[in-house]
Amino acid sequence: DIQMTQSPSTLSASVGDRVTITCRASQSINSWLAWYQQKPGKAPNLLIYKATSLKSGVPSRFGGSGSGTDFTLTISSLQPDDFATYYCQQYNSYSLYTFGQGTKVEIK
Amino acid sequence: EVQVVESGGALVQPGGSLKLSCAASGFTFSNFWMTWVRQAPGKGLEWVANIKKDGSEKFYVDSVKGRFTISRDNAKNSLYLQMNSLRVEDTAVYYCARDDPGYGDTPDVWGKGTTVTVSS
User: What phi and psi values does residue A84 have, to the nearest 5 degrees?
Assistant: First the structure.
């Protein structure tokens, strides 16, 4: 099974900061990676798919990069609405998906 | 409006059974793979199972194989998760989600979740 490792687990940042979250796969997943944002008590919200594609309606301050085993989610200028937990998810293994353990973005 | 709505969550004793349902509306249900994802209290997301458009293929995370069964009724626009031999560690919010080929087959439309508590 493919394992996904996110870092850091928690990140403290201020409004306006550039924020980077990394996700590493235990084997190559090509570009079959998604990023989700989740707020407390709510369902996850898809931000990025196929590693670099921004879902329609998601602010352009969110960006994804990487391929193979190493991936990054970048928030170019953190906004108050962005304080949340972020998850990567691989969907390379045929219909066997795996999430990373999550990164909580907190107010510094 | 495109939406999925879960139901059926409850408090159940260890070893018991429960069947979750997910009602889909606003889209052609039979055109999409569907997925169940769960989240234990204070923990991260865990993919549980998914099912092909016509129900002919089903996949499960190892921890539920042999205990959970995913199914669908395209005539009723409904997805199900039959959960048997429940364990304390199955306690979680269970989300139903639509796998969207427009987004590389990753889950896009999610319900609000239904809570399953396994406890004596």
Answer: -170, -175
Average of pLDDT values for A42-48?
A: 97
Looking at residue B96, what is its pLDDT? 98
Give the span between the Cα atoms of A27 and A33, in whole angstroms.
12
* Amino acid A92: pLDDT: 73
| Residue B114 sits at the chain A interface (C-beta within 8 Å) | no
Task: Mark yes or no for CB contact A102/B45 under 8 Å.
Answer: yes
pLDDT, tens digit (0-9, with 9 covering 90-100), for A4-35: 999 999 999 999 999 999 999 999 999 999 99
Question: Chain A residues with CB inside 8 Å of B46's CB?
Answer: 99
DSSP assignment string, B76-89:
GTEEEEEE-S--GG
**Segment 52-111 of chain B within 8 Å of chain A by CB:** 57, 59, 61-62, 95, 103-108, 110-111
Count the Cβ atoms, other than its own, within 10 Å of residue B62.
Answer: 8
Both tokens of A48, joined, read 């990025």
Count of CB pairs separated by less than 8 Å, A with B: 62
Residue A91 banded pLDDT, cuts 50, 70, 90: confident
Residue B38's nearest CA partner among B104, B102, B87 is B87
CB contact under 8 A, A91 and B112: no
